[in-house]
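Dear support,

I submitted the protein below through the web form. The confirmation email said the job was done, but the results page showed an empty box. After a refresh the structure appeared. I'm attaching both so you can tell me whether what I see now is the final result or a partial one.
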Amino acid sequence: MSLSRSFVIPLAAALALPAGAALSQESAPPAALSAAPSSLVFYFDAGSAKVRPKDVVLFDQASRLYRDGKPLVMVVTGSTDAVGTAARNLQLSQQRAGSVLRGLVARGIPTERFQILAKGATEPSVPTTSGAAEPRNRRAELTWR
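What the results page shows now:
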């Protein structure tokens, strides 16, 4: 496995809790989801996986989104900037996604609704030169479908 690629993290590893039941299939997403923002983005300080205090309000917004729209899957994707090794960035992106996941589960969203991705420094939201620090790439993005 190449460390330069992103991969799906097993939910139990990301949350350190047993995974829940399988998802049920529905024919179409609820109408409430179409009125919601397309994603919520949590930003992190350099080298940190701790959600910043000003981003904690996003947990409540995501909880309302779940309660009102009941998405089938909520995807948490962790990312880093290009500072550091590929292995460390992949690990840090997993930790960032896990921090967001724990905050969402603490607000009552069932674990079986999540998919967790770790991308390290691959697929940055803001392209940079090799090894460049870019705060907007230190993130975990929550999307849903």
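Response: this is the final, complete result; the empty box was a page-load delay. Strands lie at 7-9, 40-43, 74-79, 114-118, 139-144.
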